Amino acid sequence: MIEIGDPTASRLIVPALAQCGARLDWTVSTYLTKLTSSRNALSCAIDAKSQGFFFGLQVAALSEIAEQLGKKDWNLSLNHCDEYTPISPGIYNNIVNCNCSSADECHISVMCFEGNMFNGTVPAELGNLVDLLYLNLNTNNLTGELPKEFSNLINLRELSRLSSNNFNGKLPSFQSCEQLRILELEASGFEGPIPSDVSLLLNLTEIRITDLNGGASEFPKLENTTALEKLMLRNCNISGTIPVYLANFSLRYMDLSFNRLEGNIPNFEGALHLQNM
Fold first, then answer.
1. Higher per-residue pLDDT: 103 or 87
2. How far apart are CA 86 and CA 101, in angstroms?
């Protein structure tokens, strides 16, 4: 059922969402567009009168991403999009939310396609979702390198996760993602070394990188990431010594196992919050 309160909004939003190939049950009012369905994939509530076109452009990008990944069953459920809430651990399937907290704009802010067994490469169109805060492509069959357009995601807070895929090539630079708080690349297929510009990500609280391919590399430069609480660099072919500065961080968890580290272990006796090492 479609109820149209604003013909302009319907012309802009309905065709864009129709590209997703889903069976939709919508309610479109003059001031609020509610997108609903019995299953979960895309959810949001937007000001259709002023922002239908803008949202439609981002949904068009999502449609292209879906087509390239072979995802055709887009289904919609209601979410008021009043604030950004990280996806809870253990939630799978498809979740895409938008942020409509601003009176002027709506943006797609959350994308979670965990456990869909997608094939192929990450589409370059992902870079069009410049307001994305959370991205999870965990447990698929994605291959190749991340597109250069990935650097457009300057607002990304959580890259959680690209793990359990079959990527290849070097780990990408995350220099442009200055807002990033969580970086999780476990068993992703990438090659080391961990880029030195990770030291520019001053907001990082969690790094989880494991099972990198390639030769040995030095311990990544993390001296500026003083907000770190969790650090996992397991089986990353890291050689050399463990940096002394880590003992001054407020780490709660640290795993540096299965590397080529040598020398003395720094004194962590003053690390009162460290529970697992």
1. 103
2. 16
